[in-house]
Amino acid sequence: MKEKFIQSTIILLIGGFLTKILGMIIKIIMSRLIGTEGLGLYMLILPTFSLFIGISQFGMPVALSKLIAEDKKNNKQLFFSVIPITLLVNICLMLIIISFAPILSHNLLHNDLTYYGILAIALVIPFTSISSICRSYFFGKEKMLPHVISNLVEDIVRLILMILGVSFFLKKGIQYAVCFIILSNIISEAASILILFIFLPKNVKIKKTDLKLDKTYIKESLEIGIPTTAGRLIGSVGYFLEPIILSSTLHYIGYQNSYITREYGILSGYVMPLILLPSFFTLAISQALLPIVSKEYANKRYHSVKKKLSQAITLSLIIGIPVTISFVIFPDFLLNLIYHTKQGTNYIRFLAPVCLFQYIQSPLSSCLDAMGKSHEAMIGTTLGMITRTMLLFLLSFLKIGLWGLIIAISINVFVVTIHNYKKVKQALQPTS
Question: Residue 89: which domain range?
Answer without folding.
Answer: 2-431
